[in-house]
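Predict the holo structure. Ligand: zinc ion.
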Amino acid sequence: MFTVDAHLDLATNAITLNRDLTKPVHAIREKERQLKWKDTQDRGNGTVALPELRKGNVGLVVATIISRYSAAGNPMATLNLPGWHSPEQAYAYGQAQLAWYNVMEAMGEMVQITTWSQLQDHVARWTNNSPMDDKKPIGYILSLEGADSIINFKYLEKYYERGLRAIGPAHYGPGRYAAGTHSDGSGLTAIGKELLHEMDRLNIILDATHLTDKGFFEAMNIFKGTVWASHQNCRALVPEERQFSDDQLKLIIERGGVIGGALDTWMLHPEFKMGKSNPRELNINLEKLVDHFDHICQLAGNCLHIGFGTDLDGLFGTEQTPYDMDTIADIVIYKEILMRRGYTEENISNIFSGNWLRLLKKAWV
Ligand SMILES: [Zn+2]
């Protein structure tokens, strides 16, 4: 089944974490297991690479550029999310990530999607399953996770010209445009509000994920265009500021948005402690995400506002992933899980791709 994953940080893995994603997941793990020093918790545990996306039939991803700015005294700089000391440096680093996507395109590994007609052709190529077509390019929609690297709005236009079609203004901690996760109480900055007007003008999709509660409601008042929450679970099930409350989820539903279910065990189970808990001991399996899906479907009264936004390469690997998933290719298991949980064939097809495609058509046609 053709599958859309609305949130992967592929370029961060390639450029920040030095992973050759054209190689299979197990080869990347093997190489990293020989490292003498583990600089990130997921070394040797990664779950995402281009061959596994192909194997799992994940033919379209929303792929991010993450490049943060860190002002003096930013508390996040002490965590494993440091930032650049100027927006200009952040922009240049973002360009390095974009250059990687462009090289993947030149190799036929990926293809950038910016219009509905391109997307239609792309889906047709993936769904006609010609045996001659054994290396289909992974389609990607370019998104920014955190807008810090937009030096000013002239640079927003440059980004748009090079394919940028979605922006999450916030990431973690204080940001130039919006406060992100772990800086609850703050919201959008003055230029953050202007950014939303500029995004409306250019028809760029707003990714609400990582906005604080304050920033979220401010953004929903200002922004008129298409909204999604690319990698987002429910606060009713995992009570933490990173998740969205029912009021937030309902507002996205009312605006025709889609909420991408994330497979980070920290967002799936209230007792999971990063770096301490074990997914198997807490019995966190793939089915846990379906509890979040069920909750959103109850709020919506239908199954039209959920999809996958796995975040599976978001600085974690198998140590923080449902224990019954080895690589992203296992996403196909959801077909059987969702059937068992009472979802119809049509619901399932909408979850795997239909809901995201409908939103993109509405945004772009
Ligand atoms: Zn994220």
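The chain is about 40% helix and 10% strand. Residues 145, 210, 231, 311, 314 surround zinc ion (CB under 6 Å).
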